[in-house]
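Collaborator request log, item 7. Partner lab (contact: R.S.) asked for a structural prediction of LacI family DNA-binding transcriptional regulator to inform their binding assays.
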Amino acid sequence: MSRHDPSRPKPPTLHDVAQRAGVSAMTASRALNGKPRVSAETREAVAAAVAELGYVPNTSARMLAGRTVRRIALLHGGATTSAYLGELLLGALDEAPARNVHLTVEQCPDRATMPELVAQIVEAHVAGVILPPPLCDRAELVEGLTAAGIAVVAIAPDRESEALASVSTDDRGAAYEMTRHLIELGHRRIALIEGTSRHRSSTRRRHGYVDALRDHDMVLEQDLIEAGDFSYRSGLIAAERLLGRAERPTAIFACNDDMAAAAVTIAHQMKISVPGELSICGFDDTPLADAIWPRLTTIRQPIKEMSRKAMAILCTRLWPDGQDEASADPEHLRLPFELRRRQSDAVPPIGQ
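Returned to partner:
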């Protein structure tokens, strides 16, 4: 009796990725493997397609008889947005060719137990793992991978650990700078759309927002804080609530660009001028920030560079050579953020 269940959706294939990205399967394969002669635009399209479809490469197809293949995995879960995952992929793919490394992508099912996740990664035959948030804050997962002999580098963990290499940026400081920027423009009713509580980065950004209000002698108004989960849809719901109030905010700071873009959409629907009547700012500086109108003022979090550095740290630890040993990256890297001002923020309307 066949075990095939026709009701179960088939996992996406390389051809599905190629079709979504609008390229040939060969080009998609070259982009995923970090091969040369693939444009940055094509790499971005393929990375976006992988993120949207949840494609997991067939690692066994990459084995070469009689030869050891260097293999690193990038893990992601359901809480990782497609834009964030796309930037992580691009960074890792940028570094992989120079290190002679194959990058695989492993999706962690939300309901899987920690032993199941560890077993999944062990079966992928990888030497190291890049762990983005919130997976990097799951101690049992990190301990299980380490016990299995798999090297781990965390991206933006909640706190640095002597036992775990990491690459991060200052979420709290960045949120502080954005909030201070809006205060210095003259805004006094500044709303915050939070991310999911599963991401500690969301908590750090809230703390930065609160710190800036306190340091500028402004009262924290709880009704100006709305919960989101980093998704575009959650941004729509939060913005509708904020802008539907009798006394609405003059500025909205969303904890990522997807939610900020959603707030811009709701403002357009309600015929609220951005930035004439309402300033809206985001966080991350994903390609979306530069693609909407008005172009989004946001915090540039160096996601791509953090992923590239994580790949470099793993390779240096796993396969050191003379050059790596002489210029090895430190175990804990903190990369700078940047406030990128575009077109979505301005002074508040007169009288507000």
